[in-house]
Description:
Layout: E1 2-6, E2 8-12, H1 15-21, E3 30-33, E4 36-37, E5 48-51, E6 56-63, E7 66-70, H2 72-79, E8 92-97, H3 98-101, E9 105-107, E10 117-121, E11 133-136, H4 142-153, H5 155-158, E12 173-174, H6 182-189, H7 198-215, E13 217-218, H8 228-241, E14 245-249, H9 253-258
Parallel strand pairs: 3-7, 5-10
Antiparallel strand pairs: 1-4, 1-14, 2-3, 2-9, 5-11, 6-7, 6-8, 9-10, 12-13
Helix pairs in contact: 4-6, 6-7
The structure holds ligand ZZB.
Residues 36-39, 42, 125-126, 129-130, 132, 134-135, 137, 140-141, 205, 208-209 line the site of ligand ZZB.
Amino acid sequence: QEYTALKLKVKEWPESAQKILEGKLPKDANVYFVPATLRPETMYGQTCCFVGPKIKYGIFKVSDNEYFFLSQRAARNMSFQNIFPEWGVFPQVAELIGSDVVGTLINAPLSVHTEGVRILPMETVKDTKGTAVVTSVPSDSPDDYATVTDLAKKADYYGIKKEWAELEIIPIISTPAYGNLTAPALVKELKIQSPKDTKKLEEAKEKAYKEGFYKGTMLIGEFKGKPVEEAKALVRQVLIDSGDAFNYAEPDGLVMSRSG
Ligand code: ZZB
């Protein structure tokens, strides 16, 4: 699986993370949350970024002033893809769980929300896929739309500020079947009630991928008017050229289980 790994720079940590990180990072360090995405063309619509509240994460040193926040498993994989300076080495400077970093303010490259977006909890993040950090595009990802809806409804229960889950969802891609907001349209059509409707969400995701990729047209950005099929690689290249992203290949299950 070939992902685009995005670099979301931390602007402000919550107190819970500050306590843990005290003395562990140089003063001028830039720390990035690193979600892995298959949809770089949707990055204009990022409204937040998810971590699994109970998942274990690390902060890993990439260079003197660059640090990545992701799962240890992803750091290890990246160390064999020339993402860290030394082959197979991924120096860890801190360990946290997702709930420690909920509320972190980060900068999301290309997002219309230039004031920054928040790290929020998502129960369905898998520890075994990508980087276990997931950037949220509720306009085009049914899982993301179901989750932000739920977070806003139960903000107190999740220990977040309601407005963190309510950043405006703007149209990014138009499709013949679902209009300008594919994910909300599918969530409605399939009567998805919560992020726990996993079967229906799986179906919605498949439909959104297919319709978006083969029939979608960009409504925003440098490649506005182009088909998604073309724009995907172009947006990815823009992000890579600006230093905001890099390629990350996920080893397949077979390789993983053979190597332990
Ligand atoms: C932004 C985005 C925008 C995504 C979209 C999807 C969509 P797949 O297809 O199952 O391989 N993702 C990445 N890592 C994880 C994880 N550890 N746990 C849960 N979800 C994860 O899934 C790849 C997509 O699932 C990734 O692409 C990421 O969300 C999420 F408009 O990034 B995506 C129709 C989907 N639309």
